[in-house]
Amino acid sequence: MWNEDVLSSGPRVATAGIDLIDDALARQDVDVAPTRWQPPSASGLAPVLSSIALCDGVRTANRTALERLTGARPHLVGVRPASEAVGLEPGTFLHAGPPIDWAGASGPLRGALTGAALLEGVASSPDDATARFARGEFRLEPCHHRAAVGPMAGVVSPSMPMLVIENEAGGGKAFCTINEGLGKVLRYGAFSAEVIDRLRWIERVLAPVLGDVLRAAGPLDLYAMAGEALQMGDECHNRNRAGTSLFLRAIGPHLIEAPRSSSDAAECFRFITGNDHFFLNLMMPAAKAAADTARDIEGSTMVVAMARNGTEFGIQLSGTGNEWFTGPSGVPQGLLFPGYGPEDANPDIGDSTITETVGVGGFAMASAPAIVKFVGGSSDLALDSSRRMYAITLGEHPLFRLPALDFRGTPVGIDVALVVRRNTLPVVNTGIAGREAGVGQVGAGLVDPPARCFENALARFAERHASLLRT
Amino acid sequence: MWNEDVLSSGPRVATAGIDLIDDALARQDVDVAPTRWQPPSASGLAPVLSSIALCDGVRTANRTALERLTGARPHLVGVRPASEAVGLEPGTFLHAGPPIDWAGASGPLRGALTGAALLEGVASSPDDATARFARGEFRLEPCHHRAAVGPMAGVVSPSMPMLVIENEAGGGKAFCTINEGLGKVLRYGAFSAEVIDRLRWIERVLAPVLGDVLRAAGPLDLYAMAGEALQMGDECHNRNRAGTSLFLRAIGPHLIEAPRSSSDAAECFRFITGNDHFFLNLMMPAAKAAADTARDIEGSTMVVAMARNGTEFGIQLSGTGNEWFTGPSGVPQGLLFPGYGPEDANPDIGDSTITETVGVGGFAMASAPAIVKFVGGSSDLALDSSRRMYAITLGEHPLFRLPALDFRGTPVGIDVALVVRRNTLPVVNTGIAGREAGVGQVGAGLVDPPARCFENALARFAERHASLLRT
């Protein structure tokens, strides 16, 4: 174009950063080539960013953090009730995201807590449950404080069976409940009789059968499965069809030979194969086990947890211990199921962002072009989501590879300093819960975390590492 | 580049068609942008192409052929021995590709025939088998002549169990043996005791168990599985990991409940899950059932079979009945297993090109970027292979969609007139057999069919349709 006469052929305009100009030009039928550019963050953190960039101690700490994060090899080893697995006491309930109380909880979290109280028999009715929670009779605690993670509301009560994951490369355990399936389920805030009945079946039939199967099969290498699932169109957060398939292939022979009745075993196979998200509840605790190996490294700016409770989005850094940095949860934008509008969508909820924390989920969308049918957008969006994340991560994952990017490792190890410097937020793809308790899932989409939690984390990091940053 | 001074910045040269010039320029460090361009075929068929392009009768016939081809819904319905399924008589052996005799057969085909004669007990030793074949004591016949297809050598003998496929949209059956797994296997020409023992186990254990399972499960929709497998990184010819997974998910509960011993059922599950190509022998007869619905449509230039016997590559057209048009099989180029060189590779062999005939395999490589680890090349090659095939096909498949191309249907319905006019051959990806009988697989790669068979088919079509083309 450029070698022709602009007056006869019309100009082609390259734009940077300001959509308003792109749109105005496009409306005038001008050929626009938008480039990707973000102005630096206006957070006043420039001096901190400079001293971090110059600090060898931070570089060394981040190298260690990344090595631990990507060196983990989480295996599924068994199934145990939450009372044993994470020592959960009667009257205590775990939930997704950073700490929150009943007053601050959104509809789906309240719904899930109500259901869990009914399941445990510590409330006689939904109204009784909400009254007791409101009076503070029960204790709420984040899953993350017990080495656990939970999708969506993430509610765990003492009787619930939990999948037990061990990091075979250096120890450490993590825990997660068993995925309940689709439709009306506790994690989306539903608490009707069918929801409670299904949870009881999971405890009575599925958990013991899975326990038998895992005793026979031995530890299952979940990262090997996830790595293969990325070659099969999953991104291991909202698309888990391949992961679920590979899990069924691994346990199939043991289900056939299971010591309990073959009708129970067949029912378990049917339950798992009926729910392509089954693998999510294996991937999440695998990711948690990996992320926890990288905690508490003095001087590291790497993110080791991202989680949402339906009201706030929170993160934790390796170098700042167990402190949470939070901001308001955004409402995911994407595809809503028929019959629901944007006003039905709850703000972002769930611990499933632990997948993005370890380099899959939104960061691996280049592996999963088919996911755009679920979260919206085109196949370019899937490629672009992964490509953009290399700008805010410390490395590339040695096990998780993206065939569509010629087997480049997924971007992994979110560096809060890069997030602020590049003014680029981690991409998160997620299910959307209905705003009202009891409704369930209403769609799926993408959501931006609040910039504030990354800025606050960075400021706090600088405060805690003032002497390191001066050296 | 173009708006700068060529003398200071150096030229960028766009080239068309002639690699010699690209290479010469690239060696001089000139920035080369090769464009895709093929000179028209020099076959002297230009007048035929013109009259076909103007002929409404051909257009109508091809529309019918494409509708039938893409409207088929092949289901797996059962397992029966070849003697019943295709009425195979003792002493008759089916093989892949167009007709061939023992004298013309390549090493892997001879090896597979030898193994089948030993399996049937009609020869006392490998030497005895080859002597009998050489003396013409046994009959050879293409699989395609009995509504069957076979991967690689494709040898079928009367006692072998065959998978029975029915097209539930309008009738028609097709047949294929059960995939034997990897390593030393009959289809690659191996005939040692382990090969024969495995075939006996398939007959004695796997076939009856699968028969029971299919009676319980009912017909299995293979095109639904293939469509989903394309969303999961398969292209349904050389990558079948997702298809095999989906098949196991479908039969798993029935294997658990199977009436025979659970140790047999578990052994069958382990055999299938140990072989990611299991689904190939389901996809191939499904494709055959679909392709056969489009046969014998007067005036259609659509290809309804492509098959290789290890010596020749042959095609059949809808409008020219059962006549084969052949040319010499090429040697696939790709990745060889360690220890093998190009001199070990047999020319292209097998009926598996029935997958490309129905719009998957090489035509769906855009779904399977991970396949380049198997056949060589980069992820761009995978995208490009699919994109190029739209130029020689009559339509896009309604069930087989490519997520990486924003869910565009795969290119389907190869038009021999377009192949010749555009001088673009169908892309085929394939396993590579060792040249010597008994060696087995030595690699995988891509191969060009011989242009001659398409040109000869077109010429014969014109001859047979002289009066139609005059109208």
Index terms:
alpha+beta, homodimer, 17 strands, Enterococcus faecalis V583 fold, four-stranded antiparallel beta sheet, about 40% helix, v583 fold, about 475 residues, globular, 3 domains
**Considering the protein shown, what is the CATH homologous superfamily of the largest domain in chain A?**
Enterococcus faecalis V583 domain
Number of strands of chain A: 17
What is the subunit arrangement here?
Answer: homodimer
Helix content of chain A: 25-40%
Q: By helix and strand content of chain A, what is the structural category?
A: alpha+beta
**In CATH's first tier, which class of the largest domain in chain A applies?**
Alpha Beta
Please indicate the count of domains of chain A: 3
- How many H/I helical runs of chain A? 18
The first-to-last residue Cα distance of chain A is 52 Å
Radius of gyration of chain A: 23 Å
Q: Which protein chains make the most extensive interface, counting residues with beta carbons within 8 Å of the other chain's beta carbons?
A: A-B, 36 and 37 residues
The major beta sheet of chain A can be summarized as:
4 strands, antiparallel
Strand content of chain A: 15-25%
The CATH architecture term of the largest domain in chain A is Alpha-Beta Complex
Low-confidence stretches of chain A: none
- In one word, what is the shape of chain A? globular
